[in-house]
């Protein structure tokens, strides 16, 4: 157990639907990062939060949004789902915000859009 | 170099042999370089974070070096063991974003 908890582990949903992925960072970590891994692709950075505020944005679609709550857990909302959104979504956390600390990854949420 | 690139894409090494692979990255606006080990069906696990040019880090049989001026890092594994089989990812920190390479998939042949 890495200390980063992601739920659910698996999700199957239909096109056009909306889902919420949840992440609880490792105790004491203030930064949360979301990554997407599609088939045959590397980890693509989506978005970063630090202590409740958005810090950096990557290739995140407008249909996707995220937030970090006062208790530091984070949610990634994916709406109007398309087949191409099927992927493994990872959450990671770190103690700082500048990338000087290694990231601790959760076990991921595998999303299948049918 | 515009992106983080890793080579080779995959590698088969005999048990007991030593090996190394490369991570190349843009040298401008560099803050840090991460290495991760990613076993199948698990999540990536941090190996090293390096920030200074000339940095060398070691963890057991695995070590890494960093050249920030020319934009590359090497990961070395000495005396490979079956449990070293994994995908090794490097990632560059710039503008507060950690950008990953696509990894080197290492298979150790018993």
Description:
- The complex is a heterodimer of chains A (114) and B (110).
- With 114 residues, chain A is an all-beta fold.
- Helix content of chain A is 0%, strand content 51%.
- Chain A has no helices and eleven strands.
- Chain A has strands at residues 5-7, 10-13, 19-24, 31-37, 43-50, 53-57, 64-68, 74-78, 87-94, 104-105, 109-113.
- In chain A, strands 2, 4, 5, 6, 9, 10 and 11 form a seven-stranded mixed beta sheet that branches. In chain A, strands 1-3-8-7 form a four-stranded antiparallel beta sheet, with no helix packed on it.
- Chain A is globular.
- Helix content of chain B is 0%, strand content 56%.
- Chain B has no helices and eleven strands.
- In chain B, strands 2, 4, 5, 9, 10 and 11 form a six-stranded mixed beta sheet that branches. Chain B has a five-stranded antiparallel beta sheet with strand order 1-3-8-7-6, with no helix packed on it.
- In chain B, strand 6 (56-59) and strand 7 form a beta hairpin.
- Chain B is globular, with a radius of gyration of 13 Å.
- The interface between A and B is medium-sized, with 26 and 25 residues.
